[in-house]
Amino acid sequence: MDAFRQEVRAWLDKNLPKGWETPGYVLPEPFSQEAQDLGKWWTKKLYDAGYTGFGYPKEYGGIERPAWEIAIIRQELARRGTPPGPFSLGLLTVVPTLLDAGQEWQKKRFIPKILNGEECWCQGFSEPNAGSDLANMQTTAVKDGDEWVVNGQKVWTSAWKFGDFGILVVKTDAEAPRHRNLSLFIFDCTSSGFSRRPLRQMSGEAEFGEMFFDDMRIPDENLVGELNRGWYVAMTNLMADRGGGSGGAPAGVGVRVLGGVDSLIELAKNTRRYGRVVWEDATFRQRIAQFAIENEAMRWSGARMGVRMRKGQFTGNEASIGKVFSTEMAKRRGDMVMEIIGAYSQMVKGSKRAIDDGDHVYRMLRSRGSTIQSGTSEINRNIIAERILGLPR
Ligand SMILES: Cc1cc2nc3c(=O)[nH]c(=O)nc-3n(C[C@H](O)[C@H](O)[C@H](O)COP(=O)(O)OP(=O)(O)OC[C@H]3O[C@@H](n4cnc5c(N)ncnc54)[C@H](O)[C@@H]3O)c2cc1C
Predict the structure, then answer these.
(1) Which of 48, 189, 293, 295 has a Cα-to-Cα distance from 255 of 20 to 30 A?
(2) pTM of the full predicted structure?
(3) How far does the centroid of ligand 1 lie from the alpha carbon of residue 77, in Å?
């Protein structure tokens, strides 16, 4: 076991970016091309070494290893705090969707290149008049020979700029009732008739954007799942999204935990508010304790879901619990941090007196988006109420 740990450590020493872990090393700006290139480069390196891609079928590029080796790899990667992967929805939502509903050629063609970071994905579900009410979407695809001609617009598309491919839900039957008129396709982001442009968020970056389809053609073979049953494929996808990490929670269903308790305590101990150290204020200590308790509750709730999953009892709806809980917690945490740092919360990134270079402010602002993406808290509470608790609609 020790020999294997040494092997992983030696590999990391040799392969981590030059200057990594030195004070002079600065990660590229998130969502920049430089950050994307670094994420792709690093994921490919990990994959080629057999240090990522676990838990997926071997025939689709998954890497098989004994559990103890995987545990050591993960421990060593965590210890060194390695670069983040590329900004892509591939791993989070596309792989689960393809594994569940994709055709064999689609799984073989696309999954390996998602696992090795080579190809990135975006996802076009939401439209200007179809967010929570997704079934109301108006983008159409009309069959022409062995192709579909797509017209319409999608909005709030994460990773819009980096998508090599996208998954797209469109109306394929003008007559059929709601939920039975949609289909899900894979599209190539280099197709003619496709264009995209940024939308800037209040947190500053253009993490998401808009996509336009003007007679864009998609081959028929790119259909995922059954024709006119795209609603059900999309729901699988959204459950994966809710369970997998919406809101920046670092892990998947089963181990969802927000973390950040230690850094909160440290901040409270190192910050003065109205002339006294925040940690000395019992109300703040109680709020931080409450946060720690909820964090722990979320961890155990995630573990319970993991067990249900392994026993085949997981319906997917449970993902909404972790989604609401973790994203709302992140929002509360952000608000509490603003109260702790007081007037410094006005200092954004780049300001000379900003605490932590404005990162606290950024995280507070960004946390709002997480309570909206992949289904708002209200929508997820409705799911919990109706489909888990069995309350009336
Ligand atoms: C950071 C971020 C990333 C995103 N990434 C993507 C992406 O990659 N791809 C994509 O397709 N979409 C993406 N989205 C869009 C997201 O899925 C939608 O914003 C979300 O589903 C809400 O839709 P909407 O914005 O149209 O709001 P609306 O549906 O118009 O909702 C407005 C308000 O009404 C409430 N509401 C609506 N219906 C009900 C109801 N039945 N009961 C109670 N309350 C209700 C909502 O909770 C909300 O508060 C992203 C959004 C964000 C913030």
Answers:
(1) 48
(2) 0.90
(3) 34
